[in-house]
Design goal:
Six copies of one chain form a homohexamer. By secondary structure, chain A is α+β, with helices and mostly antiparallel strands. Helices cover 14% and strands 34% of the residues of chain A. In chain A, the strands form two sheets. Chain A has a five-stranded antiparallel beta sheet, with no helix packed on it. In chain A, strands 7-6-9-4-11 form a five-stranded antiparallel beta sheet. In chain A, α2 crosses α3. The longest helix of chain A is centred in the C-terminal third of the chain and has 11 residues. The radius of gyration of chain A is 19 Å and the shape is globular. The N and C termini of chain A lie far apart (41 Å). Chains in contact: A-B, A-D, B-C, C-E, D-F, E-F. At the E-F interface, β4, β6, β9, β11 and α1 of E face β4, β6, β9, β11 and α1 of F. Chains A, B, C, D, E, F: It comes from Triticum urartu. Chains A, B, C, D, E, F: It is found in: Secreted, Extracellular space, Apoplast.
Chain lengths: 176, 176, 176, 176, 176, 176
Amino acid sequence: MYGIASMNITGDFFTYTGFRVTNGTLPWPRRNLIAIKANMEAFPALNGQSVSYTKLVFPSECVNPPHTHPRAAELLFVLNGALSVGFVDTAGKLYTQDLSAGDMFVFPKGLVHYQYNLGQSPAIALSAFGSAAPGTVNVPASVFGTGIDNVVLAKSFKTDFWTVQKLKAALTPPPK
Amino acid sequence: MYGIASMNITGDFFTYTGFRVTNGTLPWPRRNLIAIKANMEAFPALNGQSVSYTKLVFPSECVNPPHTHPRAAELLFVLNGALSVGFVDTAGKLYTQDLSAGDMFVFPKGLVHYQYNLGQSPAIALSAFGSAAPGTVNVPASVFGTGIDNVVLAKSFKTDFWTVQKLKAALTPPPK
Amino acid sequence: MYGIASMNITGDFFTYTGFRVTNGTLPWPRRNLIAIKANMEAFPALNGQSVSYTKLVFPSECVNPPHTHPRAAELLFVLNGALSVGFVDTAGKLYTQDLSAGDMFVFPKGLVHYQYNLGQSPAIALSAFGSAAPGTVNVPASVFGTGIDNVVLAKSFKTDFWTVQKLKAALTPPPK
Amino acid sequence: MYGIASMNITGDFFTYTGFRVTNGTLPWPRRNLIAIKANMEAFPALNGQSVSYTKLVFPSECVNPPHTHPRAAELLFVLNGALSVGFVDTAGKLYTQDLSAGDMFVFPKGLVHYQYNLGQSPAIALSAFGSAAPGTVNVPASVFGTGIDNVVLAKSFKTDFWTVQKLKAALTPPPK
Amino acid sequence: MYGIASMNITGDFFTYTGFRVTNGTLPWPRRNLIAIKANMEAFPALNGQSVSYTKLVFPSECVNPPHTHPRAAELLFVLNGALSVGFVDTAGKLYTQDLSAGDMFVFPKGLVHYQYNLGQSPAIALSAFGSAAPGTVNVPASVFGTGIDNVVLAKSFKTDFWTVQKLKAALTPPPK
Amino acid sequence: MYGIASMNITGDFFTYTGFRVTNGTLPWPRRNLIAIKANMEAFPALNGQSVSYTKLVFPSECVNPPHTHPRAAELLFVLNGALSVGFVDTAGKLYTQDLSAGDMFVFPKGLVHYQYNLGQSPAIALSAFGSAAPGTVNVPASVFGTGIDNVVLAKSFKTDFWTVQKLKAALTPPPK
């Protein structure tokens, strides 16, 4: 807080309204996950405060693919709808849960996890992170969408080139 | 995550349902703040994860008195209703904001802050903390409700004994 | 210590003489606490060293009002005179002690605490902090001297507007 | 180091010889990666020292599949042979390098990375970690070998059930 | 502070009076440094508070030999008398200062430093550390008083065996 | 990893080849220790990654004199030859070991330690540190090569001026 008083800073600096956009105005139906991040980049007042939020809106049958956050645990709270969630620990054990609105689940630091909206109506969750910059590593996109050599992937996934190329075709982002 | 796989632990260990209690079943009208904490004590899976939640339910005209959290910043998200909030930095400057549902405000680490529901309907907020054990120091109760000597308080607040005793009478918890 | 050798830095950079001012030359009698801080701002060599000092000079009957240090514990050593001290833990329990010259007391991180010189002669203390920038939140000044809304304060302290306004009048600093 | 002197501890406690096993006595040819960890679990003297080693022996054409270390960066040093390595940052960019004996490469904290021995002779590497317990999340095994629901995986990898089941069959460890 | 309120703990737990012993009652004249430590071991309330004190009493012409503190910087305050102090940075540059009563000097973390009372009267200093367990590595005693091989020492100090043995004889503690 | 993708950075940034220089091309015989550091200064990609390496090449009968690393433990792995090593804990106890190629030894944070190649052939070691900037304090050079006052050194090492001056003559670097 050094020097804040001497700058022209007001309560607005400590306020974030970027989550309002999902308050009912989205053009439904839609299929893709919406993830709005209130992290240090979007909300600079979080710098040094070791906390941030992400709002997740899941259309029906939408999956948030397996991913990790390199710098924080995630504490997910279900605002609306229902979610099936899971994570895998470093010993290779899967932990799953079916969550209803009002429930909370913690994904420990750095482990692979996913969320899935099995239901017919949208699900909305608020996730808190113990870092202002938790980061996200999307597993399918990182592994099959970034140009890693086919031999490396075929050997890693114990599969054939044809399968690797099929997965790459599906997961590589189109050129901009 | 050492050894979790070898214990009889399931996804339930990572799940917290203690916030369901406020999903509509509270006997309204009521006057006092309800604060339900999903911290390390209530939800042991948070141990080592550096994140926790508190759910705050404010009846109409209810104030959460000036307080500090010794071990974390607070990132408050308004779920329902509206809240007027403020904090004071170490240079003695007050920052305030009027928040609507969907808005977020960060109270920096260790600073005195409050929330107030000016409205006629209840307000509900979810606060995330960058610690699994943020702690709370309630200022009025700590100062006037714990037996600090009258002379110390009168001098500190630059007031008379009569005022100190009046505040103590109001803020000292009844004997159990 | 990167590059210090290549700069024109001598032992003077690591020396602080700002506490000499209280070595007997103060115009007594006086009534207010003198607090001289050897923190990172006053003594830049402390940057990154996680330690700092404050020298406290208490005239007779002087109180250091309830306050917190957001970023460090305080380890107070009584150099001269006697002090009555106390702090309140997060469970609302008050811990007090009467200290003589040569005694030491630790105020744990982030908790509300105060010191009081009951005696007829000045008391002098040296406080060490486990941070180069511990910060100070003066409770009476933060709460009643910064313009927090009267309604918030009346409800928080369970008192009336008249009492709030009286405390505000006493504790609001005069305009500069 | 509290109390070490008072226990019956000698220099042996601070010594680890578990890497000798790979000094030339392995039954070649073989196909699988050998990873010997000198972490806190194998070498208790590392407790609190924030550093550990893993020795990696790659037979010809062997891949260390995409994985992350939740708690540390990895600094890999090639002792013998050659390795092709890569990692993906959180923005989805792939960084690759071909390393010869004597070269070093850093895989930043928490990011997905792999190593591959393209050569015809074995490659040996020593990896240092800035944690005594860096942990490892093997991506193919975590995602396809732990029982995550087929629907979640098919949607995440934008593929069909048949491909998911084929990958699961290849990557699920046999029951013990 | 978890649970302190539920234990039979009073303000005495947070008080340390071990420094009173040097308040004038020592049998002067004497020649050796007196160092009384208020660290976590002597004063358990410091556990987790990241701060501690040492009181140093220097008879005339007494030296505190070159030493390091592995876990903290030292902030020395001269209470009485005068001290000549110095430290060496990692680039091999010596920083020195002559301190009078009321002066302060910071010895940065982990660097070799010493203090010397040149004067004819005793000097007393209070040193604060940014750790509850800073530790001390006395250089002469560690190097010449612990049985390190003569060859290692002769080569390290670029000297002969006779000099090494003379230093060992002077610095090795007598058997208990 | 903020913004790396937007800069013109490739895998080369994460690669360090500075250790190749010792791959057989040094003009033997020689007498002095060669220490090549892959720390943050030499290899900027280590910034923030909390890990670094030093390669140590010991000619026959060469000693790495007693020294400390202020900011990290050292995990030494013997690549070739043999080394006798030791460290002294804060209680003044010496721990020693004779290491062969393939062995590992941990020198705990901040303690005085040394290595010695007793053998007739060169020894090579790789040391990992749990910091990107561990720092090194060479004890003989810091104490006798930086100009510390003769009186301080004579008293500290309980010896005479003649011995101090002899050691200073041997250990003071020649003027540049």
